[in-house]
Amino acid sequence: MHAVRSDTVEKEGPASDGPHTVGPATDGSVIAIEHVFKRFGSNVVLNDFSLAVGKEENVVVLGKSGSGKSVLIKCIIGLLRAESGQISVPGQNIPDLNHDELDRIRAKVGFLFQSNALYDSMTVRKNLEFPLRRHWIDLSQEKIDSMVTEALGNVNLAHTVDMMPEELSGGMSKRVALARTLILKPDIILYDEPTTGLDPVTAKEISTLIVDIQRKFHTASIIISHDMHCVKLVSDRVALLDGGKRYWQGKYEEMEASNDQVLKQFFE
Amino acid sequence: MRLPSKFRQFLDETGGMALFTGRFFSQEFRPRFEFRELLMQCYIIGYNSLPLVGLTGFITGLVLTMQLRPALVVYGVQSQLPVMVGIAIVREIGPVITALIFAGKIGSSIGAELGSMKVTEQIDAMEVSGTNPFKYLVVTRVVAATLMLPILVVLSDTISLFGAYVGVNIRSVTSFSLFFRQIFASLAFGDVLPAVIKTFLFGFAIGMVGCYRGYNSRNGTRGVGRSANSAVVISSILVFIIDLMVVQVTALLGLN
Question: How many domains does chain B fold into?
Answer without folding.
Answer: 1
